[in-house]
Amino acid sequence: MSEEPTPVIYWFRQDLRLDDLPALHAAVESGAPVIPCFIIDEDAPQKWAPGNASRWWLRGSLGALAKAIEKRQGTLLVRSGCSEDVLSELIEETGAYAVYCSQAYEPWNRELEERLGARLGRLGVALHCLPGSLIFTPGDVLNRAGLPFKVFTPFWRHCRSQLPESRLLPAPGVGAFAAQVPTGQDPEAWPLASSSLQPVEDWGERWTPGADGALSALDRFLNEALSGYREDRDIPAVAGTSRLSPHLHWGEISPRHVAQVLRTDAPGDTEDDQEKFLAELGWREFNQHLLFHFPHIDEQPFKDDFKSMPWRPDADAFEAWKAGLTGYPIVDAGMRELRATGFMHNRVRMICASFLTKHLLVPWQWGARWFWETLVDADLANNSGGWQWVAGCGADASPWFRIFNPVLQGKKFDPEGAYVRHWVPELAALPDRSLHAPWELAPLLLAEADVVLGETYPHPLVDHATARAQALEAYHDRSSAPQAPPT
Question: Which residues bind FAD (predicted)?
Fold first, then answer.
């Protein structure tokens, strides 16, 4: 290491890319050789340790990042342990005089940055944390009273009017990275958790983690799905969404990049569709800003009166929901898609979340935890925000009295049954008119379709009308009810 000039360290976090990365650009602009590293942080809160789906994605993304750095004659250094300790050790080994990284906004990451800055300062080493994962920096977007926005529409109206059109930062060239780095670990050898929750062996056929996969997903979306996005995004049997969420979560592409390409390279007849998708990027930003200002909402409701919501923590019902055995085909299709692919269509996520919280009155935290374990795009702010929106207890939430009828939702958004037939094949032979409510079909007609309720497919866990009435009563009485445990 002594033959090279004194290096700086670039610490990758949830920004696994090389282009349009302000902190990496600043590290390169320092003129010092850059040692790129990633730390599998074993000191982060265990309650939010990556789930199996996230671990699978991260392994692939780190492998892709390592190859991109190798093309520029560098080496990605991967180590595991406490981030503060690992970085301090690297500084001692390399003599690095500065550490650069992107800001992260989860509560524990903000605390980590504060502790790390103080610790490195005592060593005479500078810590440079720069924005990189969002379009707008939390804390900079405030209403006229100087307070955080709590309603999405005015938040996005404010942000949309200031959407930047600045030049995207280039990736480092050959020679920017240090020629030598200390020894590290093989990121692809990082084990999955000892769990058989998901058959991840064939996920490589469905997903391409890494920056190249992100660019391919964006290109597919622009050319194949953007036109008609406003309507098609709600149809689960149609490839009408971007599927960019895991790439955005892991920072394989910047949201600024996505927004800029959308506005400059999209077909000219898609203005309404573009605006709708930009608003979806805005919803992602909104949830991140909320978590920044209200860090308790990862596990506690945004609205205080929901702390006394009389949930019914029914473990058996929860297990049936997780397994896709509720007896409601659109719900079961979604839960099975999740298990098989690490993903669930957004419209179906809302239907499944509504069923758990409002038909079964199971705490929203249980569902959020399961999604955290099983989604490749598991993101704390979006996951918690989405579940609270459905449960009615979040900022700018769906009204608590809005209770999706899963039968009507299935008929509306999967009218020909293509989605349900794919994920619930035991119902494939049912006619369209009965597919979303098989219990309404006469036993003889069910038998002709090889369906025996209670044997080949379950009876409904609950009756919709009864469950709806019970949910409305529980929500109405929440202010005077004792608080049920959220876990």
Answer: 229, 241-245, 277, 377-379
Burial of 300 (0-12, 13-18, 19+ CB in 10 A): middle
Judge whether 214 is annotated as a binding position: no
The reply to whether 203 belongs to the active site is: no
pLDDT, tens digit, 9 for 90 and up, residues 442-458: 999 999 999 999 999 99
pLDDT of residue 485: 39
400: annotated active-site residue: no
The yes-or-no answer on residue 423 being catalytic is: no
Is 434 marked as a binding-site residue? no
Q: Respond yes or no: is residue 188 known to be catalytic.
A: no
Annotated binding-site residue? 88: no
Among the options 4, 280, 299, 426, which is catalytic?
Answer: 280
Q: Which helix (H) or strand (E) holds 160?
A: helix 152-160
Helix-then-strand count for the chain, H and E: 20, 5
Low-confidence ranges of the chain (pLDDT < 70): 1-3, 191-201, 479-487
Q: Is 379 annotated as a binding residue?
A: yes
Residue 295 neighbours by CB distance under 10 Å: 16
Total residue count of the chain as it appears in this document: 487
> What pLDDT shows up at residue 272?
94
102 close to 131: Cβ distance less than 8 angstroms: yes
Selecting among 366, 387, 389, 400, the annotated active-site residue is 387
242: annotated binding-site residue?
yes
Active-site choice (207, 321, 364, 366): 364
CA 55 to the chain's CA centroid:
13
Which one of 283, 299, 426, 439 is the catalytic residue? 283
Dihedral (C-alpha) 140, 142, 146, 150: value to the nearest 10 degrees? Answer: -140
What is the rounded CA–CA span in Å between residue 193 and residue 10?
28
Whether 364 sits among the annotated catalytic residues: the reply is yes
Could you confirm whether 370 is annotated as catalytic?
A: no
Residue 243 annotated as binding site: yes
Q: How far apart are the first and last CA of the chain?
A: 50
**Which domains are seen in the chain, by residue range?**
8-132 (3.40.50.620), 134-167+211-293 (1.25.40.80), 304-480 (1.10.579.10)
384 among annotated binding-site residues: no
CB atoms under 10 Å from CB of 465, counted, come to: 9
Predicted pLDDT at 397: 75
Nearest to 470 by CA among 351, 314, 306, 310: 310
- Looking at residue 199, what is its pLDDT? 58
Residue from 56, 311, 366, 423 carrying the catalytic annotation: 311
